[in-house]
């Protein structure tokens, strides 16, 4: 028995593709921001350690 996919109407298909494109864009932005967030967190940790040692 072969599986058949139901046909989507063109509007629904267009909206689905648009949503997938937006999700891919958001994922790309998050991946670009992640290294900056990691550097910021590391810098905050170094500052806190320095204050603890100096204090």
Into which percent range does the helicity of residues fall?
over 70%
Radius of gyration: 23 Å
Alpha-beta classification: mainly alpha
Form type: rod-shaped
Total number of helical segments? 1
Count the beta strands.
Answer: 0
> What gap, in angstroms, lies between the N and C termini?
74 Å
The ordered string of helix (H) and strand (E) elements is: H
Produce a short descriptive summary:
This protein has 55 residues and is mostly helical. 82% of the residues lie in helices and 0% in strands. The chain has a domain at 22-55.
What features would you describe in this structure?
The protein is mainly alpha-helical and 55 residues long. It has a domain at 22-55. It is 82% helix and 0% strand. It has 1 helix and no strands. The chain has one helix at residues 10-54. It is rod-shaped. 0% of the residues are buried.
Question: Would you spell out the secondary-structure blueprint of this structure?
Answer:
Elements: H1 10-54
Question: How would you describe this structure in keywords?
Answer:
55 residues; mainly alpha
């Amino acid at each position: 028995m072969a599986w058949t996919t139901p046909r989507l109407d063109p509007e629904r298909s267009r909206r689905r593709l648009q949503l997938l494109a937006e999700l891919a864009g958001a994922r790309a932005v998050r991946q670009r921001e992640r290294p900056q967030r990691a550097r910021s967190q590391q810098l905050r940790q170094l500052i806190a350690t320095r204050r603890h040692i100096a204090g």
